[in-house]
Amino acid sequence: MNIKQLEYFVDLASTLNFTKTAKNFYISQTAITKQIQNLEHDLDLTLFLRTKKEVVLSQEGKTFLPYAKQILKDVNLSYEAIKEYKRGKSGIIKLGFIKACDHQVLLDLLEKLKNQFPLIQFQYQAYPRQVLLDLFKDHQLDAIIMYEHNETQSFSKCVLKNSYLRKYYHRECNLSTLPLIYDVQDDENHQELEQTLLKLCLKEGYAILHDFIEYNQYAKNFNYEDTFVSSPLCFFYLNNHTNFALSHVIDYVLQTYKKDNLK
After folding, report:
1. CA distances from 210 to 48, 51, 127 (A)
2. For 88-147, how does the pLDDT look when each residue is reduced to its tens digit (9 = 90+)?
3. What is the rounded CA–CA span in Å between residue 171 and residue 150?
């Protein structure tokens, strides 16, 4: 059984005329007859009752007809799905993002991507910085969202938001008397952001953090001093990828956020 045989069968079930079906497919009546006979042999069914005057769909043929139509429909859908994939309009993209980041920017990006590419399945997960970098270098992630870092210099990027580092401390304290308890630039410090913010609330010292934390629930307790160090949040990707969908996503991100950064 093959797709062509099913197409001939479904058409013949409609025309009940071998000559008309042959004309519909621009082949000979003999070829149609032979293909229907082969299909009946493969299925071990009599699909049509033939007399000198007419061709009638058998009960077995009536039973098989909806299944044949569904198979052809599924095949056409699969062809369309492959075409969409090759056009980059469908597929799977694995995104990783750093745990401590501006989640409003992240949410905005994901909403835009899902609206722009409804047929693409976006899989996303948060990771610690080093784990995120390792997975990306190992090609287990298609793209990552994190702040610029010395290990990201070889990656292609699009800036999602310009961010700056600031020294945060409790508003009842004097910065000059406080010890540094956390620096987001320090690769050796794996302390969770929430733990750092609690320590600031408890007046244990000051921390160098990205400015997005000013939207955090604890921010009302803090003062800050600018460091004037830029640390933009970026969408990083590799140019040597083979993901059709990713190419379209990259183009969209570049066009969208470059425009935003020019405003």
Report:
1. 75, 84, 17
2. 566 889 999 998 889 899 999 999 999 999 888 999 999 999 999 999 999 999 999 999
3. 32
